[in-house]
Amino acid sequence: MCGRYELHTQPAAMALAFGLKYPPDITARYNIAPTQQVPIIRLNANGERELSQVKWGLVPFWAKDASIGSKMINARAETVTTAPAFRSAFKKTRCLIPASGFYEWQKRDDGTKQPMHIGMKHGEPFAFAGLWTTWGPKDGELVTCTIITGEPNELAAAIHNRMPVILASDDYSHWLDIENPDAAALLRPYPADAMTAYPVSTRVNSPKNDDAEILVPVE
Predict the structure, then answer these.
(1) 78 an active-site residue?
(2) How many helices (H) and strands (E) does the chain have?
(3) Catalytic residue, candidates 6, 50, 95, 104
(4) Is 104 a catalytic residue?
(5) What percent of the chain has pLDDT over 90?
(6) Which residues contact 84 (CB under 8 A, 6 or more apart)?
(7) CATH number of the domain that residue 63 is part of
(8) Which residue range forms the structural domain that includes residue 207?
(9) 142 falls in which pLDDT band (50, 70, 90)?
(10) Going along 26-68, which residue ranges are E strands?
(11) Could you count the other beta carbons within 10 Å of the beta carbon of residue 191?
């Protein structure tokens, strides 16, 4: 699964990396957690990419209660096209979820878990494959999202049995294009040789800790 990530890229670099017209109005976040507001990149009515803030934890349009979103922070790549909670969003409302890195917890021999930061060797931002949708009446609708997870690459497999689906930058347009019939083919492990991982402090275990010190490697 993917239950925590970070995004500390400068706005100008964000605009360049994701094809936005203007640098977005966002601040660095080092410990983003489920049910919080997170930035996504989607197409607007004019077909242009825009950055919007939405709640992490997808609430399907048919849900009776928005609290279901806390259980929908991830969608499995293997079933995202058929699962009732996600299939409509997969067809109609796909998005990019920008990140600078994400965290997974590796089991130690003594039974404890070591948090690991996973990101790109080049240090540049990347995008998870995501879905978004709206729920509730138009005068008070809730916009939510989920991160798609799949099989891990060789690097991530040594830490956890799943990882978020990371899209190649050349595939951003294909993913956002709802007319693309082959979008599911993009849900594959990202090349391990382009990524790096290192241990970080257990301070990341609490969402209350959200500062740059979390990124500092530990022994």
Answers:
(1) no
(2) 4, 13
(3) 104
(4) yes
(5) 94
(6) 60, 62
(7) 3.90.1680.10
(8) 5-215
(9) very high
(10) 29-32, 37-43, 49-56
(11) 12
